[in-house]
Amino acid sequence: MVLTRVGAASDTGRVRSRNEDSAFAGAGVYAVADGMGGHAAGDVASGLAVAALRRLVERPDRGPQDVRAEIARANRDILASAVADPARTGMGTTVAGVSLVRVAGTEHWAVFNVGDSRVYRFVDDALTQITVDHSELNDAVRQHVVTRALGTDPGPDADLWVFPPTPGERFLICSDGLPRELADTEIAAVLRAETGAQDAADSLVRRAVSAGGRDNVTAVVVDHVAPADPDEDVHTTPPRRRA
Question: Which of 9, 8, 47, 35 shows the shortest CA–CA distance to 176?
């Protein structure tokens, strides 16, 4: 059985007026969604995305196909919400995360993403970005434009990676507001220095805001606890939010 410690933190940042990020951490399902659309209710879209993934907790024997199904369901929920309230037309969200799944009767990790929210893995003192950003550089405004997001018809294809767990590994799930401010070397330094998952999440968000905070910043840190550690899985860790 995979045991985890989890920490989560979120901040509006220094520029945005509200936080359109949403996060979920509980019972082997961990996700971050970064809403888009501003007044078109990006916060609603990100909330619907994590609400769909939260349903995976009800399936203890979930497989990779269940993760894909809930991501597809999230897309339908976002589209339906926009139809019900025209003020939400055009809202969308990225989503990325990690879920425990069963493959051939054994536990595996399923890492998933749509958009440019990211999942990193820190193990053996090395940081690796598992997910691939679905974005491209717009030279006119020198900004990255998301090329794949929930809230589109037809729905986007989610990327999914499945692999066996390794005790001692650490995952970072984050909205793009974090790597926009912090280089991978600094992210790795924090994950190396902070032994507690919550301390690591808090430190990463705090540093990203201090470095500029040009976007909302959310981080979920998941530690795969070694078998000898008696700590239990942290089922629900709501993100610590700051104005």
Answer: 35
